[in-house]
């Protein structure tokens, strides 16, 4: 039959005319990287150890009594009362040295300056009347006790006794009526002696070195 080769020819032409479909391109193969090892944990820093704050002379340095808005006359009376308190404490605590003569100095001081001591006491009572009203006598008694205690120390006992002996002899040489000026000028000398370093090694406060225990962290493979 004549039409069969024609059909085959048309079919061949149709196949040749169909567009060619490109084969999908192959993706480049990459080698997988090995998993990274986890980083080793950082060792925690040692905790900071704060050293205790120790004032000069040790940890038993007493504090001075601070008045509330004192007048010039009250400042002078306070200085006289501080000299009296310091010499009294020295008479009790410094008898280990007969050369200081603190007991005799204190007794002579009371006799030589009795009038000014009485005026200083009255001025201080008036100060507490002005600042505390009806509690004036109670506040004055507390002030006196705290002032005496502020000169009692173990750390700087030797330095305190030496300073009290020097200032006490100087106060005895002052004419009557001039104790206030001398007290203002020299009672800080006794106060400063309370901050001196202890002479005896047994009385020196040493801050120990902190002990830090290391924290062990195992290495991760």
Your description of this structure?
This protein is mostly helical and 221 residues long. It has a domain at 72-196. The protein contains seven helices and no strands. Helix 2 crosses helix 5 (136-149). The longest helix has 22 residues, at 72-93. The protein is elongated and about 100 Å long. The two termini are 84 Å apart. Residues 1-21, 47-58 and 203-209 have low confidence and may be disordered.
Q: What descriptive keywords fit this protein?
A:
221 residues, mainly alpha, disordered N terminus
Shape: elongated
The tally of helices reads 7
The helix content, as a percent range, equals 40-55%
Task: Tell me what portion of residues adopts beta-strand conformation.
Answer: under 5%
The count of DSSP E runs of length 2 or more, i.e. the number of strands, is 0
Give the helix/strand layout.
Blueprint: H1 3-17, H2 72-93, H3 102-112, H4 114-132, H5 136-149, H6 157-172, H7 179-193
Helix pairs in contact: 2-3, 2-4, 2-5, 2-6, 2-7, 3-6, 4-5, 6-7
Short structural description:
The chain has 221 residues and is mainly α. The chain has helices at 3-17, 72-93, 102-112, 114-132, 136-149, 157-172, 179-193. Helix 3 (102-112) runs parallel beside helix 6.
